[in-house]
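Objective 1.3, modelling of assemblies. Example input:
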Amino acid sequence: MTATAEPEVGKARLRKEDARLITGQTRWTDNLRLTGMLHMAVLRSPVAHARIRNIDCSRATAMPGVAIVLTGQDFAAEQGSLPCAWPITEDMKSPPAPALAVDQVNFAGEAVALVIADNAYRAADALAAIDVDYDELPVVLDLEEALRDNDLVHPSLGTNRCATWVYDSAEAGSGTDVEDEIAAAEVVLERTFRQQRLIPAFMEPRSVVVDPSAGTFTVWSATQIPHILRWMLSAVTGVAEHKIRVIAPDVGGGFGGKLQVTPEELLCLLAARRMGRPVKWTESRTESMLSGHHGRDQLQKITLAARRDGTVTGLKVELLADMGAYLRLVTPGIPILGAFMFNAIYKFAAYRFVCTNVFTNKVPTDAYRGAGRPEATFAIERMMDELAAELGVDPLKIRERNWIGHDEFPFTTVAGLTYDSGNYEAATARALELFDYESLREEQQRRRASGDPVQLGIGISTYTEMCGLAPSRVLGALRYGAGGWETASIRMLPTGKVEVITGTSPHGQGHETVWSQIVADRLGVPFEDVEVLHGDTASSHKGMDSYGSRSLAVGGTALVHAADKVLAKARRLAAHMMECDEADVEFASGSFSVRGTSTVRSLGDVVLAAHVAHDLPEGMEPGMDADATFDPDNFSFPHGTHLCATEVDTETGVVRIRSYVAVDDVGTVVNPLIVDGQVHGGLAQGIAQALYEEAVHDEMGTLTTATFADYLVPSAADLPAFITARTSTPATSNPLGAKGVGEAGTIASTPAVVNGVLDAVRHLGVRDIEMPLSPERVWNALQGRSADGSGDVAAGGLGSIDTQGGQS
Amino acid sequence: MHISVNVDGVAYADEVEPRLLLVHHLRERLGKTGTVVGCDTGNCGACTVHLDGHSVKSCQMFAVQANGHEITTVEGLARDGRLHPVQEAFRDNHALQCGFCTPGMIMQAIDLLADEPDPDDETVRKGLEGNLCRCTGYQNIVRAVQDAAQRMKPGAGPKIEQHDHDHVSAKQPVGGE
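Predicted structure (tokens):
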């Protein structure tokens, strides 16, 4: 066996995944074609709120190629209710969530009928021949208006208020009383920010194939969560869990958008069961935007108390969070993931967080990259800039004054979390060095002095996040319905090759590569000799899947533990083979040796001996496989400092990012190539929230941004080149020292950009601009008015239609 | 309608509905699933293929419009088991994550490099404007395209394929030709 001299961990390995992806030898769900397969098309409600009076399927049923047309009435007895796994409070209101609407639709895009036909074109044709009579109801769109309960999304609930969730440092014993701090403060700032609604916009549209043959339902789905999906499909349909196999083949991105048990997955299963034949559904992009869950959408009222010297003392957060029309898998918990992060890296004496979840007649919201933490980081980083402006000091100085010092870790925060490690000074120092902060400040002064039509702004954002989801006991305390552990198995094959089975479910992250590196390092086997199996509940029988920057910190740790179990057993057998005491066995670079002798057995020799089992120590089982499940004690806390130089054309409102520096501390890095890639992609999505993207519903509740022509996912031409670098304080909560990187870039970049734009125009009298910072909004702000002329809150966005109603 | 289309060097003759999109013809009829569909408005570019050597979005064309033409997809780029330099550059520069946009991105990059053999950052970004990627932030895609440009420069290929004077004269004594 080849010894691996150079450590694999830390090496910029090219990805194993790429060979198939760059040649088109891919396994997307939509590539599947099974014998006898039928195609499902979904008729969606064009109205946001209505009673369904009648559905006439007779014309559609008679069309060529159509096998059957099904409505919610047809499935009413068997479809159950789509699951919500996170009832955040005991008294949370949770409406029934049928996959196919039965008698009422509650958002435009909700499924109301299905066509099952012999090909996708004919299925789509028949949709147009289904006649639905709707009795329209008043639509509920605005969060504050919804709370007045004048019109109700779900009359049976009696209110649009879903739940109210509170964290109070005085009650929790983690700090003082925020009202006392506010009363005693020398400076009190109150601001309201709007986290606009976003669409995850993964590139691969969702697709499902269900094969009901052989007494088992095999479900292929473009999902992030094959294991949770299997569990939930069983729970909802009553089909025994062991008769469902879920496969997530190649999955083209997710970003939280595929962290879902979708109506269509359930409907495909029910249709396949009814027809006794395989059924496929693949969505169009517009369907994806109309029916796949959205992200963000909060109104944040923030009160910050401070002393004149810049020391922050109290933080009060009052959120309204838009659930949309239904509670999907983790909808109500998303804002709660932010509850522990508003205090960020700063030392507040008092903290109070109150979140009210609200129903509206819009597409349901749920996880989107960062999930609760970008919202929190945006709010606090905007407030730190507001405080700096109020006191007339450099925003960096304000942050320095208040952040946790590197010598204060582990640090228990006012929100009750214990940050294990970090060095905010080091990350910030590195960022400043790469950014050339001082000379940009000088240029800014020159441009201000000369009245340059293009003004320069410098945006700062620090951040930390809780990721590596999650300690199961904490999830339990938060009333989440599942655990946060992860599992891994190692199969040592008789030829010395290694199969790794992981419960994580990659969809672009490169786990096949990174998991191979970890095993190669631990076992001293060649990188190429490791095969990683994932995303199939038949081979990977348990797991909690991939989201929340958890895969490496939790799943990678399970893998380390499994490898250690392999080695422990192999060491015992090696001692037996070399006729020595186990305590004298040494292991290095894939070989066991007896200390002080030349006797050597390679791991391969030992594995083979375990496999043939001719001569094992008394009581040892044949084989060298091992399983491990890891439940973390704590979250991990990546952090970083991002700096963004923006140029704002005051004559046109156009914002250009001139330079962007991201310094992140994600702990120990296994593969720097992949970590850089994750940061780049995260930055792009965070910048997109700041400048480009917004899901807009018109006054009727119709989503007006349901194509890529209207929903502005940035192209290469819209984004700058990024300068990325790292500092590193290893996590102490796992043996890899890994903290998680998937969400970091998204969390930090949005406030960095917005702070940069405001820094460019604040001296011209602009206090705030609502996201996305489109040229129209920036220009309007410079003219001293918001886009809709209503004063404080800008709206209207991309020149399209304002969520509050009315043309901008 | 009857159409004949050459796809990745293979001639196919089929009877198709006039409304059948080229990308569906490739995927559903010919099994060329390397080319994918990412949207329905021509914005994302995931379905980009070459029609007679120029990039087109195959969801914006009917199959019948490809009658008599040559189509190249991402599946037809490798030659004799060797990747196209753009494919290699995408792998070597980590220019893909989920890989869904990659077929279209690679086909568009090849088209771009045919017009711009040594593009700067801005030229690459503008040249790829019609292809969306949600994973990479484009940084490594831009780098890969510029790297590929270097690999595709005359003389940049593997030694064995070079016909410079030194190479030929060095070989002569050995072969005794």
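Chain A has three domains: 18-25+485-630, 45-137, 295-469+634-782.
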